[in-house]
Amino acid sequence: MTEPVITTLLDTDLYKYTMMQAVLHQHPAAEVEYRFRCRTPDVDFSACFDDISREIDHLCTLQLTDDELDYLAELDYLKPDFIHFLRLFRLDRRFVELECIDGRLELSIRGPWLHTILFEVPLLAIISEVYCRHHYPCPDWQQAREKTQQKIAQITQEEGFRFSDFGTRRRFSAKWQKEVVHTLASALPKQFSGTSNLALSRLIGRPPMGTMAHEFLQAFQALGPRLIDSQKAALDAWVGEYRGRLGIALTDVVGMDAFLRDFDLYYAKLFDGLRHDSGDPVVWTEKALAHYRKLKVDPNGKRLVYSDSLTVTKALELYQRFSGQCRPAFGIGTYITNDVTDTTPLSMVIKMTRCNGQAVAKLSDSPGKAMCEDDGYLTYLSQVFGVQPPVVNKN
């Protein structure tokens, strides 16, 4: 019998728990919806569907053990009342709707934000691994390990380079991610900062990496006092929750230009840095550096984190270009956890689409990454923030 894809609720990214704590304390009654989208065209999930459904059923039987709760309690930004809440927590299968229509996977999540926020990462990991099991049953592991060693050889040449594993959601398998993370931690003790995956962070004895995701800022489009103030409301809520900890702000929910208009001197001093997740990283960096300098904040003291579809080569190029002007760091995902076969891994996401019955959107700085189910709201959001409305692919 094949081992389940997810065997612990720690097999997810840190930022799901940090956002979940903020939701518990600030918006425990918020209701949300999420939608799955596979950006890779013409993918047929028919053969995978039953296995995906069974894996989701198993996921919803899991609870955190006492040892796992003790580990979370050691993270000093997670508070005792949140740990007590997690002691009782279990994902509810009734919040997930799953269908396969003409080979297309239709997945939605609806329910209380507090009780649905942990679904995203394990569901994506399940879909990715089940798909890989069906389509690549006998991968060339020697070739995969050689690819990892080639990456290590590249990184070894840059002593100051720092990167983390951000690859849980689209990994080839849980077993492969575990092997890669152990290999990187052993071979690159200085350059490899760790992983966003809590279970693997615990195994390798390094702090988990991460802060917030798009959904946190998206939700405040419905939760904030005014739409134009939604980004500032989300940043204020984050600062109120963590009081200077976990201080990397995500910039691309309504685009970098609109973000920087809100990111004034107050936030520039409060937050340790920014995260890039769409658009040209060189253009983004130049804008960030210019903004800090305009505010008379030294960017050499700020961490700029890059996490958009990175390869080691691309990350090293960015490091070499900007290492003397800021503190660059890199979250590399699919390229290190799903670089197993010679085919391109699936590009897929689960994004929040509604909060408290109102449409919310991620505009992004990259064509094709925008996601919204309400064209009228998308136009309105773009007008409010003074940005060009994106073309949304709803397939």
From TrEMBL:
Top EC class, one word: ligase
Keyword annotations: Glycosyltransferase, Ligase, Phosphoprotein, Pyridine nucleotide biosynthesis, Transferase
Protein name (record): Nicotinate phosphoribosyltransferase
Residues recorded with modification Phosphohistidine: H214
Domain named Nicotinate phosphoribosyltransferase N-terminal: residues: 10-128
NCBIfam families membership: NAPRTase, PRK05321.1
InterPro entries: N/Namide_PRibTrfase, NAPRTase_N, Nic_PRibTrfase, Nic_PRibTrfase-Fam, Nicotinate_pribotase-like_C
Pfam families referenced in this protein's UniProt entry, alphabetically: NAPRTase (PF04095), NAPRTase_N (PF17767)
Gene Ontology MF terms in the entry: glycosyltransferase activity; nicotinate phosphoribosyltransferase activity
GO CC terms in record: cytosol
Catalysed conversion reaction: 5-phospho-alpha-D-ribose 1-diphosphate + nicotinate + ATP + H2O = nicotinate beta-D-ribonucleotide + ADP + phosphate + diphosphate
Any GO BP annotation: NAD+ biosynthetic process via the salvage pathway
Keyword match Transferase: yes
Domain of life (superkingdom): Bacteria
E.C. number: 6.3.4.21
Pathway entry: Cofactor biosynthesis; NAD(+) biosynthesis; nicotinate D-ribonucleotide from nicotinate: step 1/1
Post-translational modification comment from the UniProt entry: Transiently phosphorylated on a His residue during the reaction cycle. Phosphorylation strongly increases the affinity for substrates and increases the rate of nicotinate D-ribonucleotide production. Dephosphorylation regenerates the low-affinity form of the enzyme, leading to product release.
Domain Nicotinate/nicotinamide phosphoribosyltransferase: 161-387
Function: Catalyzes the synthesis of beta-nicotinate D-ribonucleotide from nicotinate and 5-phospho-D-ribose 1-phosphate at the expense of ATP.
Family the UniProt entry places it in: Belongs to the NAPRTase family.
PANTHER family given in the database record: NICOTINATE PHOSPHORIBOSYLTRANSFERASE (PTHR11098:SF1)
